[in-house]
Amino acid sequence: MKRFFKRLVVPLAAVFCLQMPVALAQSDIPSLGDTARAELSPAAEYQLGKEIMGQVRSDPAYVNDPVLTEYLSNLGNRLVSADTQTRGELTNDFTFFAVRDPTLNAFAFPGGFIGVHTGLLLATQSESELASVLSHEIGHVSQRHIARMLSQQKQDILIPIATTALAILAASAGGDAAGAVLMGGQGYAIQKQINFTRDAEKEADRVGFQILKNAGFDTTGMTSFFQRMQTATRTYSDAPSPYLRTHPLTSERIADIDARVRREPYRQHADSLDFFLMRAKARLVQDDSEPALQTAAAVFEEQIKSGSKLYMAAGNYGLALIALHRKDIAEAKTRLQQVKKTVGEAAARQSLALNSLAIEIMLASNQTADAVREARAAIARFPSSRALAHQYANALYMSRQYGEAAKFLRKQVQMYREDPVLQRQLARVYDAQGKRALMHMAMAESYSLTGAYSAALEQLDLARKAKDVTFYDQSVIDAREREWKAIVRDDLKKR
């Protein structure tokens, strides 16, 4: 399961860097010029990244945990928003996500898609350290290193990129043809060119440092994390971590960052409660087998004994999640109360993770009316939270308030047009209401958002045949069918 994701990410990251050393070694990394913009526009770069993410989201290693994803998104977007220059020429939103993998790694796809391994999240000792890694990856994106590579190439370099991506995906099924694509000189070239160049890394450091500083984090987090990674690699293994392989870390780079830190006045940054809670969640997301849960429980018990308020809260939060996983609702409630007692009710109300856990426990114990009230109050505190929106819709559905659920979800899908989960929830509500045409139309939208256009077209056909389909519905179905069939035709041409 994880092996497939690695086969996808590593060679794709490599092919994006293909021939970059030649392009960058001859310069001091100047400002991106007109040639690079002509080769790969920001819109095309985003579209390329979006297509890759469509495949990534279907892999089991992709972490589909709304609370963890929202935490990373909030942290990442805080960094992106710290400086108006950070986005550069990109106009689209950045996307941050987690990958279920114990190794220390993070990576950026073109167009602002940034992934973090759960192992790296666990390795960070402060929120500033985690922010420093995200800032570095944002630096790669904002400086458009992929477009710079293409400034020395023709636009047909996108053909081997697409071919390699398809070959890697085919390899997940064990196809011999895929192996043939990657075994020749091209595969060797990909492996040889996997690393970002030193110049590119230094620029990402420089930009990332400024982002970290502007966002109000402790800039020493950048040096402390890199130094600890380097020390751990030397101490415990002859092979460098995946992060160090794809982001070559030299003593010169560390010295350069350290010099920048020393020129700045020290700024302390208080770690958020949710940082510690999300590290606990990442430990369980990484592996939820029973032996792993037992090991995690021992870690959480030690954290509770530490005497540190935040570690105690994280320990009890982790044990609450384990209890919920084992369907021990009483224990989950007890552990949640321990967290609230440790941090105080006021702090608990300001924690997205704790609000979400409280609702989840209520739903698990069939306290649907209480869950609806709790979710409504939580949304008032976090009005833009997607995780809480999903939970509120689920609570309304479970309490059989189908009309209210449909009304809420219709507003949500208008605000968040690229959220397949909301469309699936809406389809489930329409199904409960007996609205067959609308149910199939919502399912079609959900499939399309995950790139499954054939399944989406099948759902449109079922919607068209439904007895309750209206003239307006038919118009929408016809328009969507034309749009998605055109996408399928274009995709076939690319293949």
Automatic annotation (TrEMBL):
Keyword Kinase: no
Organism of this sequence: Oxalobacter aliiformigenes
EC number: 3.4.24.-
Record field: transmembrane: none
Region forming the signal peptide: 1-25
Protein name stated in the entry: M48 family metalloprotease
Domain Peptidase M48: from-to ranges: 72-260
Source species, domain of life: Bacteria
Cross-referenced CDD domains: M48C_bepA_like (cd07333)
EC class name: hydrolase
Pfam families in alphabetical order: Peptidase_M48 (PF01435)
